[in-house]
Each structure stands twice: as C-alpha cells, then as structure tokens.
C-alpha cells in the first residue's frame, strides 16, 4: 500500500508567500474609480497566482504529491456586487498552473468554505453555493485539470438529521452536473457521522472523505475498522485513490481544534488499522496548524519510532 501525505494551502517553509491574499469588499468599495478597483483586483490576483506557482514548485522540489488549493485564489470572484472577468486577464497564468500540476502528477483539490451549504433550507444560500462551487469548477477548467474535486460537508441539520440527509440527496441531484460530479463528502465533528455520510455517498454515488479527527469527536459507537472498506469502495469508479483527513486535537482528546503537529502514535495506529482492513493505496491530507512542517515532522517521527514501512520519498511511504 502506497500512502502519500499532503498539506493545506500555506507552505510555512516559504516566508511571505501566500496564494490567498484578500481584497475585502469594504476596501474595494472605498476605491474611487472602476479603473482603481480593477487594478487592485488584478494586482492581488497576480500576486496570489504567482505565489501559488512558487508553492507548487516547492512541492515538486520536496516530492510532495498532494496539496489543497486555497479557495481564496481570486479575490471577490463570487461576490454578488463585484463583476469582473478575471478569466479574461489570467487564463494564461491559470493554464500554466495547470501544466505545472499535471507535469508533476500532483493531486490537488479545493475545500470550499463552510458557508457553502447544499442542503440549506434557504434558497438564497443554495444559489450562493451553486455560484461559489461553479467558480471552483471554472478554475479547474481554466487549469485544464480534470481530476479536481470539491470537498464538502453535508451542512445544515435544520429539521433533524434524517430530514437534512434527505434534503441533501434531493438538492444535489438538482445541482449542475459539472458540480455534482466533482463533489466528495466528508463527515463532520458535530452532526453527520462517518456512517451518515457513507449512506449519502452510496445514495448519490459520490466518493467519501473520511476525517478521523471528526469521527473521534462525533460518532454513534461505530468503529472505523468496520466502515473503512466500504468508505474506500466509494472510490472504486474514480481515477484517484481514496483520501483521508488526519489531524490531532490541540488539547484534550475530543478537542475539535487542530494541533500544530500530528501525534505519530495515533497515525501509526491508523496505518495498522488500514493495513488490516483494506488493501489499496490512499492519500492522507494532514490538517495541522504547521502545514508542510507538520508533514515533514510526521515522516521523521515515523522514522524515529522505527515504524515498519518503506520511505519512498519525503512525503510517501509504503506499508
């Protein structure tokens, strides 16, 4: 089994490099002319894309094959009061980003913000969600990256869990196909358990992302050992391998906040469980505050505890 580790958005080894510099609507609105507004948006977008290229090349140099793109790459791109044709100005740059990703055979995805709620009871929220997710798919298209996915939580629990699940299933079937075929669902830490999300994924034929930390915080007595094979099987028709989210609690065992680094013993225990339960490659997104530093530390920690695996490169192991 080959396991690749990835990290989220910011490479802390790169000082003053970020692909998610913002332009707030308040700042935008204070600019006097349309020319100034456009100049500001273009300037920040250029900086973000340039820094993203720097990060991707850093990933390549360090043999990192899995990376989460920021959802804030293009400032104010989905704000209802701001209409600007970023693709008109940055299609070449985004195409170049896509070429770098494909040349390196890197896996990337988006995890749109929590205010995107597919099963909301409010039509306005659903409309906003469709607009935001369409934008993410547009970026994949401009990058010519066909394998991109959108990681989403089930969302609203209005009306109770069962009604919320049924509403999600009903709503997603009405979404544009270009969005729904990109959706992968993740269990959360408050309402929708891994078992709940697995049920939805089977119904809508979508892949599932297992978040181990969320499962610890929210479950109904289910053991991951009993669910893992079925969860991974939701990826059977996908080109890419299953993916897992892994983080450690900051303080107490059930603290929902992420720690700076990963507890290597917990991670090793999960690897052992996976080895016993499934027989296939998978990718692990490290959700830790120290980002790429946490990834490298985890690899070193595995070496220090003499975990029985082959270290293929700086982010990949074979068990």
Features:
alpha/beta; 319 residues; single chain
> Quick one: how many beta strands?
10
Helix content: 40-55%
Q: Can you identify the CATH superfamily?
A: Divalent-metal-dependent TIM barrel enzymes
Q: Tell me about the largest β-sheet.
A: 10 strands, mixed
- CATH class equals Alpha Beta
Show unreliable segments: none
Any idea of the CATH topology? TIM Barrel
Supply the number of structural domains: 1
Assign an overall shape.
globular
The total of helices stands at 11
Short description:
With 319 residues, the protein is an alpha/beta fold.
What does the model show?
The protein is an alpha/beta fold and 319 residues long. It has a single domain, classed as TIM Barrel. Helices cover 45% and strands 13% of the residues. The protein has eleven helices and ten strands. It has helices at residues 25-30, 34-61, 86-103, 123-143, 161-172, 177-180, 194-204, 212-217, 224-233, 264-277, 291-304, and strands spanning 2-8, 66-69, 107-110, 150-153, 183-186, 208-211, 243-246, 282-286, 310-313, 316-318. Strands 1, 2, 3, 4, 5, 6, 7, 8, 9 and 10 form a ten-stranded mixed sheet that branches. Strand 9 (310-313) and strand 10 (316-318) form a beta hairpin. The protein is globular and about 60 Å long. The mean pLDDT is 97.
